[in-house]
Design brief:
It is a single chain. With 414 residues, the protein is of the alpha+beta class. It is built from 11 helices and 20 strands. The strands form 5 sheets. A 6-stranded antiparallel sheet has the order 4-5-8-17-10-15. Strand 6 and strand 7 form a beta hairpin. Helix 1 packs parallel to helix 3 and helix 8 packs antiparallel against helix 9. It comes from Shewanella pneumatophori. This is Alginate lyase domain-containing protein. Keywords: Signal.
């Protein structure tokens, strides 16, 4: 009861109950929105419903803050928009993120959910029956009555039973043991554009019970191009989207492309060079332990640094030289306090290099992000697929910094 009263107070203080519609949205498209769920509407017993309600309230709190952050123009020089870095080369390139049509649609979809919460809730469930999303366990679960109620396979069980590579298992064990410390504490901080905190510090049930997927840990052909430490040290959770808790196929007859969730990447790792034909964005939620701790490389597919070496009707194979003189200038630093938002256009080649040398206890630290894809309903363009790049000199092996890197880009269809 105490938790419910506190959360209700938070929802009221942030305007979630009143549901005021921003003037850049058409209220006729928001009020009375009609929802078509993806799959059957979940049903729950009275006992289960109490925990579903807690999870739903935290979901609305998370989504509202994200929409407000994206449209916060107080320091951006944009209109109704935050600024995003879109390419890290040539000194860095930025844009007003809400200039993109896919972003306008995603924000509209979020407000349609918030302002028609009872109808949208029919598409919401704990997804406890899904076998491939997991509970991190540990202190995160101990602090969440929702995660304790809806049983999932834990990270510990997952790495013990489903991961065969011994080195990945070891990294996964450390990731599991330290997950709570990675996503909580003073180092986790919201960028200034957010109206309030939506980290695990404030929304313990959502972060514990969302359902996490260590997407690279199990054996698979694409992991020939990956690194063991990122395979065991990365996971993401989806809240709103086709794989998430809130699964909406259409609103007012229009397909919904939003995927919104969170990611955790352990320090001392390089998330490999990769691409996908679906647009993607991240808000960094970590205060760096040292200057330039969190570095991002992003190259648009039409960059002069990218050279086509082969193509067919569906794929364009490209190369770029990450080992060229002054290649370090291809990377830009970001954090919760500087260049917090990154937007990747479709087929942008990108990677994340996270330094752990300046951390007192690197095993306990990670980069934590609000994550989203905005047009994931378009299944023509590798929906749900991330394509890892490779070494051009040794195809089929991971692409390392300081060498020529080769990537296959999906030919986007319109």
């Amino acid at each position: 009861m105490k938790y419910t009263m506190l959360l209700s107070s938070l929802l009221l203080s942030n305007g979630l109950v009143a549901g005021e519609i921003p003037d850049f949205l058409d209220k006729n498209d928001i009020n009375g929105a009609q929802f078509q769920c993806l799959g059957e509407s979940p049903t729950y017993s009275a006992k289960d419903q109490k925990y579903i309600d807690i999870l739903w309230d935290e979901t609305l709190t998370y989504l509202r803050a994200y929409a407000e952050a994206l449209t916060n123009d107080q320091s951006s020089g944009c209109l109704n928009s935050d600024t995003a870095m879109v390419d890290s080369t040539e000194g860095g390139q930025h844009m007003c993120v809400m200039d993109r049509r896919d972003m306008k649609l995603m924000v509209k979809n979020i407000y349609q959910v918030i302002n028609n919460a009872d109808e949208a809730k029919k598409c919401f469930g704990a997804r406890e029956d899904v076998s491939w999303i997991y509970n991190p366990g540990g202190e995160l679960t101990k602090n969440s009555p929702v995660a304790q109620h809806f049983k999932r396979t834990t990270f510990t069980e997952f790495f013990d039973e489903k991961v065969t590579d011994k080195q990945v298992k070891e990294y996964g064990k450390s990731f599991t043991n330290n997950f709570y410390k990675m996503v909580t504490g003073d180092e986790v901080k919201m960028p200034a554009v957010f109206p309030y905190d939506i980290s695990a510090n404030s929304l313990p049930n959502l972060w514990a019970a969302a359902g996490w997927f260590p997407m690279y840990a199990e054996e698979g052909k694409r992991n020939d191009k990956n690194f063991d430490n990122i395979r065991g040290g990365y996971a993401y959770a989806e809240i709103f989207g086709h794989w998430g808790l809130l699964r909406i196929d259409e609103i007012n007859g229009e397909k919904v492309g939003a995927e919104v969730g969170m990611t955790v990447q352990a320090v001392d790792t390089l998330y490999p060079f990769h691409n996908h034909a679906i647009s993607e964005m991240y808000y960094n939620m970590r205060v760096p332990a040292c200057t330039n701790q969190f570095k991002t490389m992003a190259i648009r597919e039409d960059s002069p640094l990218v050279k086509t070496v082969k193509e067919d009707d569906t794929v364009r194979r490209v190369q770029f030289d990450e080992g060229q003189h002054n290649s370090q200038t291809m990377w830009l630093s970001g954090s919760a306090e500087q260049d917090s938002l990154i937007y990747f256009h479709q087929n942008t080649i990108h990677a994340f290099d996270v330094d752990g040398s300046c951390e007192a206890k690197p095993e306990e630290r990670a980069i934590v992000s609000v994550w989203a894809r905005s047009n994931a309903n378009d299944k023509r363009n590798d929906y749900g697929t991330t394509l890892l790049c490779e070494s051009a000199a040794n195809p089929g092996t991971p692409a390392k910094r300081g060498e020529v890197i080769q990537c296959d880009l999906t030919k986007v269809k319109w």
